[in-house]
User: Fold this.
Amino acid sequence: MDKIVHYSIVDRLSSGNVISVSIRITVKGFPVSEILEYHNEGKWSQDISTISRTYNDGEIQEQWDNFKSRLLSFLDDDNMRIIMDIMTDDDEYYSNKYKLNVIVTSFEIID
Assistant:
């Protein structure tokens, strides 16, 4: 099934859940072609290094760096990717291992 799924991934270790990122995964064809993109300043990019956040609070800036590290590990974890692949409209998943909350914000089947 060809689809585009938008996710919000929230850092559960940050105070008040202030650290998050939006990602989009596009899945097409067979064998499957998958494109993972990160949203930053109104644009989508496949390069996570394009995502930057600047916080006045040094502690939150440190948390952001830690979040990016856990996010990359989470996205490289095949078990987590399988869970994300079966998620649909309004589904939500919490990973205790990575301390991340994954929320489907949009799910579109492509004809």
